[in-house]
Write a structure and sequence with these properties.
Helix content: 25-40%
Number of helices: 8
Distance between the termini: 17 Å
Largest sheet: 4 strands, antiparallel
Order of helices and strands: EEEHEEHEHHEHEEHHEH
Radius of gyration: 16 Å
Length: 179
């Protein structure tokens, strides 16, 4: 059995209606995926199944989500060892230790192109930092800047399909998969 992490993008279904994590776990079990567990109510899922192609798992989960909840949601899947590698690759360890909620990673379905990373540099404030690692984008956000420009710039339209998680979530998911 292989352990996987699945990240759901924007699980708000409509006005004041979010996905209930017990319903998400039930959907996952209905697909024959084993031992589904969630972390916080923001669409973080860990499960086990036989070794499967990532894109096939993403399609299965997205199709089931659409059928179960009536809305398409992009779902990014990573193998446990790839998640642990992502967590270990955090380029801002000191900042993460001091202010975990100010460090986030945009986890991408496909590696973000170098030209998109270069274009994002224009949005980084003087007290913010950004670094691409393994095709994902890590950002240290400023507490001093009330509306961070990089957050608006890391959209699907600019970078492709992805979803962001802060360091607390990244670390806790790594612990869930054995890190």
């Amino acid at each position: 059995m292989q352990t996987y992490v699945a990240l759901l993008y924007s699980i708000v279904l409509g006005e004041g209606r979010r996905v209930v994590m017990s319903d998400l776990r039930a959907m996952t079990e209905g697909l024959g995926l084993n031992n589904p567990r969630t972390l916080v109510a923001t669409g973080n899922l860990v499960f086990e199944t036989k070794e499967t192609e990532i894109a096939a798992l993403e399609r299965r989960l997205e199709t089931a989500f659409q059928k179960t909840f009536g809305r398409h949601v992009d779902i990014i899947v990573r193998r446990a060892d790839d998640w642990l590698k992502l967590a270990a690759g955090n380029p801002f360890p000191a900042e993460s230790a001091a202010a975990a909620d100010q460090v986030a990673v945009r986890v991408m379905r496909k590696p973000v192109p170098a030209e998109a990373v270069a274009a994002l540099e224009a949005y980084i404030g003087k007290d913010e930092r950004m670094q691409a690692v393994g095709g994902d984008i890590w950002i240290f956000f400023s507490r001093e800047t009330p509306s961070s420009r990089p957050l608006a710039a890391i959209s699907h339209k600019r970078l492709g399909i992805g979803t962001s998680r802060n360091w607390n979530t990244v670390r806790k998911l790594a612990e869930m998969v054995g890190g």
